[in-house]
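Consider the following assembly input.
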Amino acid sequence: MGFPHPSHPKETVVLSQYFGDAEARGFDGWVARGGYEGLRKALSLTPEAIIDEVKASGLRGRGGAGFPTGLKWSFMPKGDGKPHYLVCNADESEPGTFKDREIMRWTPHALLEGCAIAAYAIGAERCYIYIRGEFTEPLKIMAGAVEEANAKGALGGNAFGSGKRIEMLIHRGAGAYICGEETAMMNSIEGKRGNPRIKPPFPAVAGLFGMPTTINNVETLAAVPHILVRGADWYKGLCRGNPKSTGTKLISICGHVQRPGNYEVTMGTPLKEILYDMAGGPPAGREFKAVIPGGSSVPIMTIAEAEDALFDYEGIVAKGSMLGSAGMIVMDDSTDMVYQIWRLAKFYAHESCAQCTQCREGTAWTTKILERILSGKGRQEDFELLLDLSENMTGKTICVLSDSCAAPVVSGIQKFRDEFEAYIQGSRQPALAAG
Amino acid sequence: MTSELVTVTIDGAPVRVPKGTTIIEAAKQVGVLIPHYCYHPSLPSPAVCRMCLVEVEKAPKLAPACVTTVAEGQVVHVNSAAAKKAREGVLELLLINHPLDCPICDQAGECELQNYVFQEGRAGTRYSEYAKRYNPVEDFGPDVLYVPNRCILCTRCVRFMDDVAGAPVLNVSERGDRAYIGIAQEQKLDHPWSGNVVDLCPVGSLLSKDFLHKARAWDLDKAASVCSGCTQGCNVTIDTRDDVVVRIRPRPNLEVNRHFICDHGRLSYRWMNRGDRVEAPLVRDGARHLASDWDSARARAEQVLRGASGRAVVLASGRASTESLGLVRQMVARFEVTAAVQVPLGDEAPLPGVPDLALRRERAPNLVGAELLGYTRAWDAAVRQAASAAVVVLLDPDLGPAEEAVLSGARGVLLVLATVATGSWPTAEVILPVTSVAEETGTYVNRDRRVQLFHQAKAQPGMARPAWWVAAGLLAGEAGRAPATASEAFRRLSDWWPVFGGMTHADLGYSGRVLGAEAPAEVAG
């Protein structure tokens, strides 16, 4: 549902069905709504059968990368005798993204159930749920849900009497965006500075505490019980576009729309429907100008590109951007694109972990150049400088924070060059005081 | 060696290296040094500086050579356009906040930032109108200053303290371009091995207070030497400026000290610069000594030795070379000999991250060499014996008042070989000026019986000569065969002590050889 708005007829409501329904938060209320059926079923299956079912469903990672979930689980070694870990990435920090927050706020047991199924499937007895530090309310709700699920015997030393141990541990983040990157998250859980690690080794080989680990996003895990209960074929059938993108996707829409909020759509829904029908179009008297479709880290789309796109992994890539986390930032014709790009760059400069040279220095320099342009002191050479700097920052570092800073700059210059020119040529008044 | 070899091509040169070798190490085998900052062969690799990015054919992105391992058939381009552009980009970014204060920086001339920028950096900066990041200098510990403005955050220092010293007091503080190297609250960088962070720092960010503003790197002369601080035998380089020792730094030897030395060894060099040296042979004339020449002094020594019989006692410094210990011992071979080596003791201070590496309790670099040559550690007993011996030879020991009192009452002939003019020896027949480890070439044998060669680092003062040379002239009946160089002196040791097995200085190279071990294949072949 388009929480906090009523559900739109063009939505496909699966994960968001009980958003706003306070009774669904409790264990009994959740069971009354069919909850924990997926886990009960899973515990009667072999881990291989669960992985096969998830593979067949076509479920892909909802955190941003879109990696096939079943395949990821199948990378976990079998019979290696080591402890395995599941980490649930609930550090939702991507600007523009607030879907996981609502899953945790309203349907905490859906997440716990998904975590438990995944843990069982990968041979883990322990799952860490890493919750963004600023999410005080979801944290409280999740902690309560874990306690309740343990008390009811759904989790703990003997989950639903299956003899399986499934422990949930909530780890609270401390305010670093980069800890949402899976390897930085593992360092953070280990008590170390949240710096991303070099891959290889990949987490399935040597992850948390050096042990085989799988990291999945909240939304990914929350979808798993539905797949087990209703079947892979049902899930696979939820597809209006490319058959490689299946199921539903929660979209967080913010910015210049009539009804910002969370919407759940079938993969492949035309982006136009989402923008105009569900979110209600632009504010009165305005027109859309640009859309950042997948959280702040992906290239900016012009509204023309967006209106043409199908909303799934392939559809957005075809229009020059990425699905990412589906945190959609919508900008109308009143938006100063240079200013917005500067604001994004400033965010990345602040959040860079400082490991890699290109990111540490490049994000800060990019910010300074944009600041200079905004203060009316830009030069023609700045285009070349920004693009060259962005090239140096793309594909050269341990993680993609640096690339994420470069993406809006490059796409911004490509698509909204006239707005940069206006500042440089003095036809637009400086937006910032000269530094 | 049974490890599997793979063939890779690096900048057109094929090379076979063991599977698991990193590209950066494989490249060294074909003479290609891939520029790098965070990588260090004795530290874990974090791949953070991104300087060593190289192009690997068929790989989607440039690969960090420090952590990417070789694969069969791999083709690597270190100097392709893409790789060079990436490095140029890193260098430009490293410089935007760097103060470029090379004229007042101790690292200038041996700075990896300076070197690589000159090699392949941009001619000018595009970061012109902004203030550079500023943080004040921090006092990290007894011998280490941190200059954050010059720091490139390679984190070698942090990793050394975390993973090698096992004393995690350094960290990266803050984020983004505000980051700097921090030190834990209420902590000091005072681990006995912490001085290594100064050598590890590729730029002039971590500085030794001891060396601060002492000399420019290009004014230094360097000699490969062996630390005289303890029995570990760490390989070092002695840096001199105008014949004054100004710095001691570790010299890599993977078998002994990898790339490290302890602070005790690093800072114990001032004695090498002492001014109160014996500079001419002194010959007794009644109650006084007169400066003489070597012929007269050796003639006097030969004369008094010929006239004596019975017991000879040799009291030797633990810093004496194998050559000197051997030839001095041989000089009195016709007597009943008691030879003792002086072994000052201290606290053991291990470096946890490197097996079998520590500042040792025994602070005598050639203790094992001396023992192989028949010297005993029973020092006090030897001093007591000296009181009644026919001949007493002092080979530059460091004597206290009690020992001096015993020896001044000694009845026998007293021959003194000394570096410094301490003590007074009214009864000494001759006081002969000898060189220190910094002024001669010779060998030490470390605690693992590794014979290691050290080279002369500074000129000998006045007429001082190596003690082996002095003794060689007095070898009874062997004047014609007396060795004339340290190498010849070492070669002769095998004649008398078969344990040396015909070993020569030429066998030792820059990393030494363990007694009784097989010669390395490549040398033998």
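The mean pLDDT of chain A is 96. Ask yourself how this observation constrains the way the partners meet.
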